[in-house]
From TrEMBL:
Residues 1-18 form the signal peptide. It comes from the Eukaryota. The keyword Endoplasmic reticulum does not apply. Keywords: Hydrolase, Signal. This is GDSL lipase/acylhydrolase. The keyword Magnesium does not apply. It holds the Pfam family Lipase_GDSL. SUPFAM superfamilies: SGNH hydrolase. GO terms for molecular function: hydrolase activity, acting on ester bonds.
Amino acid sequence: MLFSLFCAFAVAASGVHAAGVRPGQIKHLVTFGDSYTDTVSTGDKGTAWPVYAAGYSKTTLHPFARSGATCSNNITFRPFPPVFESQLPLYFTETGNGSLRLPAGETVYTLWIGTNDLGVNSLVTGSNNASVVDVVACMVDWVRVLYKSGARNFIVQNMIPLELTVLYAADSYPNRFWAVERNASDWSVLMREMVLSGNALTKLMLQALAPTLPGSHIAVFDSHSLIQDIHDRPALYLNGTVPLNVTGCWDSCVAPVGGGDLVCTVQNGTARDSYLWADELHPSEQSDRIIAREIALTLEGKRSRWSTWLN
Ligand SMILES: *[C@@H]1O[C@H](CO)[C@@H](O)[C@H](O)[C@H]1NC(C)=O
Ligand SMILES: *[C@@H]1O[C@H](CO)[C@@H](O)[C@H](O)[C@H]1NC(C)=O
Ligand SMILES: *[C@@H]1O[C@H](CO)[C@@H](O)[C@H](O)[C@H]1NC(C)=O
Ligand SMILES: *[C@@H]1O[C@H](CO)[C@@H](O)[C@H](O)[C@H]1NC(C)=O
Ligand SMILES: *[C@@H]1O[C@H](CO)[C@@H](O)[C@H](O)[C@H]1NC(C)=O
Ligand SMILES: *[C@@H]1O[C@H](CO)[C@@H](O)[C@H](O)[C@H]1NC(C)=O
Ligand SMILES: *[C@@H]1O[C@H](CO)[C@@H](O)[C@H](O)[C@H]1NC(C)=O
């Protein structure tokens, strides 16, 4: 007791910050992930959350996330640029040749991955020999690898309740992402179990990792609870000009079973901000603005209800 009190005073006196980043500290935001975070091929068909987050927090954005990505193609292969074999190598090339210079203390690194790893043509369809355990171990490795290269501040965004997306909902319809016959209620149950256990494991593994990385600050951003709350209490978040909609999407396309021409219903303009989902798999731009607002608070060293600094 006395010893820990002494330590607490020693830490305070030496000015070492206990948990999280300080207000004004962060000037750079470096993002890794998939189409949820890609700023060019955007999942929401609008402006991606990192652009909003950098604007809100007055930080400079360095975007590495790419649409279609998984954490590692060694684990869950998809023909897209994964975090480990494409996004990180590009980052290390740019920092190595001096074209990207990022002071560690002024930089936060984010990772939001898992949707494709767990999704169609991967875990949910039994398309590889991986498990959610492998996927989570890979996410946590991302912290380890960047830390080893000098990075210190991290935000790991957990997986959203994918069973609420149209693609993985029990009452789904054949769509552009999956038009082959399937048992939608089976998928929905499996997705929910994989996401919940994966997120619990992510938190536990990061809690175990954090004390082994001196000087690091690692936050878990609870995308899962945030998206669930938008789903449950949409009036607090959605602000479009048509009735609020958390089950459908503004770009909804029904496919004939077995594939063929899509039949689409598309909302335009301010109506889109009434939707939780942009299409059958992606959060809408308004959902992304909310995510950006909360990430920005975290970058600014302020409190966000959805972020927890582990150290
Ligand atoms: C992927 O596999 C290659 C070849 O076996 C290996 O060099 C690389 O380290 C692996 N990457 C990861 C993230 O496991
Ligand atoms: C550094 O590497 C990046 C990525 O390959 C490349 O685009 C850039 O031109 C390189 N810059 C220098 C100074 O070599
Ligand atoms: C999974 O493992 C089995 C047994 O080792 C192998 O026959 C199969 O080809 C593997 N499947 C994939 C998609 O790697
Ligand atoms: C789909 O799976 C559910 C269990 O998740 C089962 O109750 C139902 O009978 C299955 N439907 C078909 C058409 O196989
Ligand atoms: C939500 O949007 C979908 C797709 O446009 C539509 O089919 C559905 O009727 C809407 N639901 C409500 C409650 O408005
Ligand atoms: C949205 O715009 C497209 C293209 O102009 C149009 O086909 C569609 O009917 C519009 N949607 C609504 C709900 O008005
Ligand atoms: C909804 O709110 C966001 C800020 O969160 C704002 O940027 C957007 O323009 C609003 N949408 C509408 C249709 O008013």
